[in-house]
Structure formats: structure tokens, C-alpha cells
Design brief:
Layout (H helix, E strand, L loop, with lengths): L8 H12 L5 H8 L3 H13 L19 E9 L4 H9 L4 E6 L6 E7 L2 H12 L4 E8 L10 H10 L1
């Protein structure tokens, strides 16, 4: 993964405008922020290349695809097999994210499922991966705070 660098207040304003108007053209974003189109385009391209801008996949809700259940599966892994476990998890379509974490477990696996039976099958598939020693599944009952980045962008703009 490319390394992201700190963004400046101009980048933050450009990103805030993109959050407010995700379908805006580069020219429209540039006008709102007070930049030339070429400068805005260059900044957006740099942020795409250095992974400041994340995948647009985040905008598609799993519920719309038939996966209304969300769960987090904590996973203990044989350390020398961490890479192959990661590759096996990436091969499961219902695995949305995998985080390596500190503490009593090694991985936090974010999954979605069509129903309880589907979640049971997915959890079993994860447990069957060679190198996975133990799992624990926590079903998300309700999301209290959706993924967000705008408060951090506002902080950068306010500091300038």
C-alpha cells in the first residue's frame, strides 16, 4: 500500500467539497475551493496515487447487495502463517476488511452475511483456514457512528 502523507488545508478543503458533492466535476470542485482546474486535478491525482483517497467501494452498502448482517470475527492465527491466512481471507467475498491488531487476538475480520445461516457458514470457512487457531464472532446489532472523515478534515481547515 502506498504511504499517505499529511494533507494541507487546501487539500482538506478540496476533500470536504468532494464529500459534500461526490459527483462534482474537477472544475466544479476547483471553483468551490478557489483553485485552477489543473491545480485541483493535480492535487486529486496525487491523493489518489498516494492512497489518501480511499476506494469508492465504501459508498456501496452491503445491504443493497443482499448482505444485511455485519459481524466482526476476532481470529487467533499461527504467527508464521499470517500471510497465507490473510490471502485465504481475501478469497472470501463476504470478508470486507481484515485488520492485524494487538492484544489477545491477531486479526479483526469484518464480514457481511445474508442471514444467520450464511454467517455461520462464513465463520466456519474462516475457522477451517490452515493456521487459524480460534475465532470469536460478534454480530453487529446497530451501527451508532457511520464511517466518517469530515470531522478530521474540518480540524485541518480550522488550524490554518
Amino acid at each position: 500500500m502506498p504511504k499517505t502523507g499529511p494533507i494541507d488545508p487546501i487539500d482538506a478543503r478540496l476533500l470536504l467539497e468532494l464529500v459534500r458533492h461526490p459527483r462534482a466535476t474537477t472544475s466544479g470542485l476547483a471553483d468551490q475551493v478557489g483553485l485552477s482546474r489543473n491545480t485541483a486535478q493535480a492535487r486529486l491525482l496525487r491523493m489518489e496515487q498516494n492512497a489518501t483517497l480511499d476506494s469508492f467501494e465504501r459508498r456501496v452498502r452491503p445491504e443493497a447487495l443482499g448482505y444485511p448482517l455485519t459481524a466482526f470475527i476476532t481470529t487467533q492465527v499461527t504467527q508464521r502463517r499470517l500471510d497465507e491466512v490473510g490471502a485465504a481471507l481475501a478469497a472470501i467475498p463476504q470478508v470486507l476488511q481484515v485488520h492485524g491488531v494487538s492484544g489477545p487476538t491477531d486479526l479483526l475480520v469484518h464480514v457481511v452475511a445474508a442471514d444467520a445461516e450464511d454467517l455461520y457458514r462464513i465463520a466456519g470457512r474462516i475457522l477451517a483456514i490452515p493456521g487459524v487457531e480460534r475465532t470469536n464472532t460478534a454480530l453487529v446489532m446497530r451501527q451508532l457512528v457511520d464511517y466518517r472523515i469530515t470531522p478530521l478534515l474540518h480540524r485541518i481547515v480550522e488550524r490554518s
